[in-house]
Amino acid sequence: MVEDDLAHGRLVEVLPQLSGASRPFSLIYPTQRHVPQRVKVLIEFLMERLATPVR
Fold first, then answer.
1. Tens digits of residue pLDDT in 24-45
2. Is the pTM value of this prediction over 0.70?
3. Which of 8, 27, 38, 41 is 20 to 30 A from 49 via CA?
4. What is the total count of domains within the chain?
């Protein structure tokens, strides 16, 4: 997700000795009858971005 930014110097890698495979994470939020729209949008964004395997 950041390869282009690294290649163009917009991001700088720190602690390269700790780099490695992607680390899984969980998105935890309280279940409610009416989930706020901003939470729905965030979940949809993350699902779209993370559904594609990282190279």
1. 777 787 777 888 899 889 888 8
2. no
3. 8
4. 1
